[in-house]
Design a protein that fits this description.
Length: 276
C-alpha cells in the first residue's frame, strides 16, 4: 500500500509539473495550459529538440562535438567550469549538469579536486543524450531553496499538533537510518512533504512533491550524489532538519524560513562545489 501511495504521489507530481509550467511548453516555447503528462507524446517532435537545445543537454552535445572533432584528446583536461560558462555564454549550473551528462555517457571523467578529463575510452563515439523530462536537478534545487523556505514559514503558522507528530516521526526515522542512504532519503522526502502538508495548501504540497520527484527522476541525480553526497552531509542535514522542526513547533515563521533556506543552501553549496 505504501508503494502504491508513493506512485500515486509521483503521478500527481508529474501532472502538477506540467500544469504549473515547470516543463509545459509548446513547439514555440509558449506555456501550454493544463496539459497532462499523457499528452506529451502528441506534441510536435521539434518540441523535445528545441527544449534539449536550450537545456544542459544542448551544451553537452556541443562539448561532445568538440571532443569528436579532436579539440580535446583522450586524457586531456577540459577547461574549468567558469571558462566553459564564459565560452558558451551559459550559467555554471548548466555547465555542471552538462558535464555530469557527459560523465553518465562515459565521455568525460570527473576527478574531484583535479578537474574534468576526456575519457581514455572512445570518447568521440556517437552518443544519444536522453532529453530531460524537466529542469536539471541543480536548477530544481535552487527553486526549492526559494519556495520551500516560504512553505516552512507558512507551516509554522498553520500547523496542527497532528502535523508535529508526523514531522517528529520523519525526523526520528532519519536519525535512526543515518547509515542507510535509501531509508534516510525516503524519510527525508517524507519530512519535506509533511512540512508542505502542514500548510493546508494542496497547491504547495503538489509543487514541493513535483520539485522533489522531478529532480530525482533525472539520470544526473545519482551521479551528482555519487560525487557529493556523504554521511557528513546527512549529519549536517539532520541538524538542519531539527532546527526547522523546532521553529515550526514554536510557530516561529521567520526562524522556519531561515532554517529551511540555510538547509537547502548547504545542499546546493555541497553539490556545486568546485571540482578543482
Amino acid at each position: 500500500m505504501r508503494r502504491a501511495g508513493h506512485l500515486a504521489e509521483s503521478e500527481a507530481a508529474r501532472n502538477w509539473c506540467t500544469i504549473l509550467a515547470i516543463r509545459c511548453r509548446d513547439g514555440a516555447g509558449q506555456p501550454v495550459a493544463s496539459l497532462s503528462m499523457t499528452d506529451l507524446s502528441s506534441l510536435p517532435a521539434s518540441r523535445d529538440t528545441d527544449a534539449a537545445d536550450r537545456s544542459y543537454i544542448g551544451l553537452a552535445r556541443q562539448i561532445h562535438a568538440m571532443v569528436a572533432a579532436g579539440a580535446f584528446e583522450a586524457g586531456a583536461r577540459l577547461p574549468s567550469e567558469r571558462s566553459l560558462a564564459d565560452q558558451f555564454g551559459v550559467s555554471r549550473t548548466q555547465v555542471r549538469e552538462a558535464i555530469i551528462a557527459l560523465e553518465v555517457q562515459g565521455i568525460v571523467e570527473v576527478r574531484i579536486g583535479s578537474g574534468i578529463y576526456v575519457s581514455a575510452a572512445d570518447a568521440a563515439r556517437p552518443v544519444t543524450f536522453e532529453v530531460p523530462r524537466g529542469p536539471g536537478p541543480i536548477e530544481t534545487l535552487r527553486a526549492r531553496g526559494l519556495i520551500e523556505a516560504e512553505v516552512a514559514a507558512l507551516a509554522a503558522t498553520e500547523r496542527k499538533d497532528a502535523d508535529l507528530d508526523r514531522l517528529f516521526f520523519s525526523l526520528t526515522t532519519m536519525r535512526e537510518q543515518m547509515d542507510d542512504k535509501v531509508a534516510y532519503d525516503a524519510a527525508d522526502r517524507q519530512f519535506h512533504l509533511r512540512i508542505a502538508e502542514s500548510t493546508g495548501n494542496t497547491v504547495l504540497l503538489h509543487m514541493v512533491t513535483a520539485m522533489w520527484d522531478c529532480a530525482r527522476s533525472d539520470p544526473l541525480w545519482d551521479k551528482i550524489e555519487e560525487h557529493f553526497h556523504s554521511t557528513a552531509l546527512r549529519e549536517a542535514s539532520q541538524e538542519d532538519h531539527q532546527r526547522i522542526f523546532a521553529a515550526i513547533m514554536a510557530r516561529d515563521a521567520t526562524a522556519a524560513r531561515d532554517a529551511m533556506r540555510a538547509h537547502l543552501s548547504r545542499v546546493i553549496a555541497e553539490f556545486t562545489q568546485a571540482w578543482r
